[in-house]
Structures are given as C-alpha cells and as structure tokens.
Design goal:
The chain is mostly helical. The chain is 47% helix and 7% strand. It has a single domain, classed as P-loop containing nucleotide triphosphate hydrolases (Rossmann fold, 3-Layer(aba) Sandwich), CATH 3.40.50. The chain has helices at residues 2-11, 15-21, 39-49, 62-67, 80-83, 101-119, and strands at 56-59, 93-96.
C-alpha cells in the first residue's frame, strides 16, 4: 500500500489532495486537512485554494513524545512522510502540545475563532 501511494504521489504530487477535495464536501466553507505530510501537499492547497488556505503545525518536544511512548525508529521517523514539513513551510499557527489541556485549549482558541469567522458564526 505504501509503495502504491508513493508511486501515485511521484507521478502526480497532487493526486491525494485532489481526490480528497473532489467529493461532495468540496463545497464546505472550511476544510481541516489533518494529516498533510509533504511539502507537495501544502503547496497544492496553496496553489489551488491559496486565499483560504491556512496552515497549522502541531508539535511536541522529543522528551514529551517519549513520555507518551514514542521511540525513534530509523527508516521511518526520518523519512519525508514524517519530517518533510519540519522546514520550508511558513505556518499560520504553531501549536505546542507539550503542556496541559488548558495550554492546548488556549492555543487552539485563535484557530477556532478564525473558523467561526469564516462560517459567519
């Protein structure tokens, strides 16, 4: 499955982005793309939906990640699908997921306010 997906992406970097946005939901006023993994994904949305595209990076320190059970695995965690967006993207919001739920909620509030504005709420 991974090889098939990589072959598709190599032939057409926007394949999965286009597939996701061609559904009936394409008329939605707000999209949340929860798992962009490559620069080509971010670039595709900026190119095709530039005026309304906003980017959010959620990160945690390696120490926090280890406390949550993460173990660095060479050949997986150093691949483009895991670290391809670590540089070269100007994020609209950077969310740190290292602290308490209250810390996270306060960071997410700005994004929620933006979405509510887009929806006319």
């Amino acid at each position: 499955m991974i090889r098939w997906g990589e072959a598709r992406r190599s032939a057409d970097p926007g394949f999965f982005c286009r597939l996701a946005t061609q559904s009936d939901g394409a008329r939605c006023p707000v999209w949340l793309i929860s798992d962009a993994r490559r620069r080509s994904d971010v670039d595709w949305f900026a190119r095709h939906h530039g005026a309304v595209t906003r980017t959010v990076r959620v990160s945690a320190s390696d120490d926090t990640r280890r406390k949550r059970g993460w173990v660095f695995t060479p050949g997986i965690d150093d691949m483009e699908s895991e670290c391809g967006l670590d540089s070269g993207v100007q994020w609209d919001w950077n969310i740190r997921n290292d602290g308490s739920d209250g810390d996270l909620d306060s960071q997410l509030q700005e994004i929620l306010s933006h979405v509510e504005l887009q929806l006319g709420s």
